[in-house]
Amino acid sequence: MISKPAFVLVLLIVSLLGLPFVMVSSLSAATVKQMELQADEISTLATGIRSYYADNVVARLQKADGQAVFSENYRDVHGGIPIPATLSIELGALFDSAHSDGRINYAFLSDYPFAKRDVPPLDGFETDAIGAFRKDPELPRYVQLERSWLGRSTYRLATPVLMRPACVTCHNQHPDSPKKNWKVGDVRGIQEVTVRGIQVNGFGQLGYLVGYAGLLGLVSVGATATFQRQNKLLLSTNDRLREGSRREVDLSNQLRQQVQELSLLGAVVENATFGVSIADMRQDDYPLIYVNEAFCQITGYPKEKASGFNCRFLRGPDTDPITVSEIARAIREGKAYSCELVNYRLNGEKFWNRLTIYPFGGRPGKPDFYVGNQVDITSIRTFNDLASSQLIAIRPSIEAASLQVSQSITFAQGLRDQLACDDALTAEVDQFLNAEQSSLRQLQGSVAEIQDLIRLASAGQQHSPQPLQDQSL
Ligand code: HEC
Ligand SMILES: Cc1cc2nc3c(=O)[nH]c(=O)nc-3n(C[C@H](O)[C@H](O)[C@H](O)COP(=O)(O)O)c2cc1C
After folding, report:
1. Do 286 and 309 touch, CB atoms closer than 8 A?
2. Residue 286 in contact with ligand 1 by CB distance below 6 A
3. pLDDT at residue 335 greater than cutoff 90
4. If you average pLDDT over residues 75-98, what whole number do you get?
5. 8 alpha carbon to ligand 2 midpoint, in Å?
6. pLDDT digits (tens, 9 = 90+) for 269-323
7. Is the pLDDT of residue 470 over 60?
8. What one-character DSSP code corresponds to residue 167?
């Protein structure tokens, strides 16, 4: 498919290439016109000269019966002067020698040449012209234009040479005359003027024009190529732009999706039931940059009172200093850490905090952030405390009971030893003793169980540090 600019260019090239041809053709038309005029003038002039010579020189001299002798050989005859035909023939030769470039020819010819005249036979145009004049005595002229694009145009003009009374007499009497029955009005021959176009009419000079056209063509082709390349460049830029905008749309869709996911995660974090706090480890003293709603609820600190401060504001007199130093060490080493410690709400109220912190972002050992999770475990801790204190409280009484049982066993054993003789009584005491011993075993079992429970409870109360795996989100 040809694009519009290419079409315009082709049109331009064609018209530029056509320019020399238009120039040449108009030039050649002008030249031909000029050739016609020139041939006419020469012909008229030659006829005029010959007539003038025939009427005013030859006729008058003949009438005067002078010494003049009219002869075609006038040079060889004493007092000889040329007859009109010779004048014309010699005029033609004179004319031809004056135009050595062969641009203009003058000829005085006939189809009945005198015997002595050594002339080439007539060509087609000349024969045709004589024929035409003989056929139509009124015909004043016979012309031919040989147009040639690559050579030179030629304009040939023939006018009839008619016999007049004076001519007839001599021609019919002259010994060398090839025909002796000439009548007045006969076409004796023709006078022919040939004008050839100058070089520009032919395509000689056209070399320059062709060169010029070629140059124009080259320039045009170059321009077309440049335009085409420019066009291609534009098109490809356009493609790239389209591709870019498509990518942009893709990116913005991705971005929108990510923002949506982020806000979803944000909502999850914000609404979590445990506290979430984020500290910026790149800033001095690691201030909190985010705390969620649960953090505020657990600690009683509103966001604006927590954000921008190090989380140590939750510490108080009963916070275990060893635990705090272990947190500090974990942070120094960039590790995760989990512990339970006593913290204080804004209103001064104590609470048990199960704290987990873990690094996020940055390099290993030097995180950009720390994330903290706070869980209020006060109720669990209080229940444990309560259970163990109650156990501790009942231990003495159980121990007292077991002591009493063992004492009564000792007593029963003594009693059985004393009553060893009485079989019936001994049997009863043995029975009692067995029962007491099994009670004692039971009691001792209970005491051991209670002691286990107390140990367990107090062990749960103790902070038991447990390192977590580093987490990355
Ligand atoms: C005195 C005699 C004489 C007269 C008058 C005369 N001619 Fe001729 N003409 C001749 C001769 C002789 C020649 C040959 C010329 C040559 O060979 O140079 C000739 C040649 C010609 C030719 C050329 C023929 C050829 O050889 O091809 C023509 C045409 C011609 N004459 C026409 C005329 C006409 C027309 C007149 C009248 C105006 C005329 N002549 C008057 C003697 C005469
Ligand atoms: C993200 C994060 C959350 C924290 N949360 C608590 C907390 O809830 N309670 C607390 O007593 N200490 C918390 N800490 C620890 C303190 O901010 C502080 O680092 C620690 O008490 C050691 O402090 P020091 O530099 O004063 O020794 C947290 C630390 C970080 C990095």
Report:
1. no
2. no
3. yes
4. 82
5. 80
6. 999 999 999 999 999 999 999 999 999 999 999 999 999 999 999 999 999 999 9
7. no
8. H
Best mutation site among 62, 186, 188 for ligand 1 pocket (most ligand atoms within 8 Å of CB): 188
Q: What is the mean pLDDT of the chain?
A: 84
Q: List strand residue ranges (DSSP E) for 211-309, in order.
A: 275-280, 288-291
Residues 6+ apart with CB under 8 A from 179: 112, 171
Tokens of 170: 């001599």
Q: Which two three-digit tokens encode residue 112?
A: 């009945």
In whole angstroms, what is the distance from residue 216 CA to residue 17 CA? 7
Distance CA 203, CA 149 (A): 6
pLDDT at res. 133 = 95
For strands 337-344 and 288-291, give the pairing: unpaired
**Span from the CA of 39 to the centroid of ligand 1 (angstroms):** 23
Is any atom of ligand 1 closer than 6 Å to the C-beta of 114?
A: yes
Most distant CA atoms of the chain, gap in Å? 229
Closest atom of ligand 1 to CA, residue 58: 5
Classified as helix, coil or strand, 285 is: coil
Q: How far apart are CA 258 and CA 248, in angstroms?
A: 15
Q: Which pLDDT score, from 0 to 100, does residue 464 have? A: 43
Q: How far is the CA of 328 from the centre of ligand 2 (A)?
A: 7
C-alpha to C-alpha distance for 280 and 123, rounded to whole angstroms: 118
261 alpha carbon to ligand 2 midpoint, in Å? Answer: 29
For ligand 2, atom 14, name the residue with the nearest CA: 311
Spacing, Cα 469 to ligand 2 middle (Å): 19
**CB 85 near ligand 1, within 6 Å:** yes
**Residue 86 alpha carbon, nearest atom of ligand 1:** 18
pLDDT, tens digit, for every residue of 175-205? Answer: 888 999 999 999 999 999 988 876 544 455 5
- Say if residue 171 is exposed, middle or buried (CB neighbours under 10 Å; 0-12, 13-18, 19+): buried
CA separation (Å) from 70 to 53, 60, 61, 149, 465?
12, 12, 9, 47, 159
Q: Please indicate whether residue 134 or residue 90 has the higher confidence score (pLDDT).
A: 134
Q: Does the global pTM surpass 0.85? A: no
Checking 293-296 for CB contacts under 8 A at 24+ apart, the result is: 294/374, 295/374
HSE-CB at 343 with a 13 A cutoff on CA atoms is 24
Tell which atom from ligand 2 comes closest to the C-alpha of 319. 11
Angle between helices 206-270 and 4-52 (to 10 degrees): 170
Q: At what angle do helices 4-52 and 84-98 cross, to 10 degrees?
A: 140
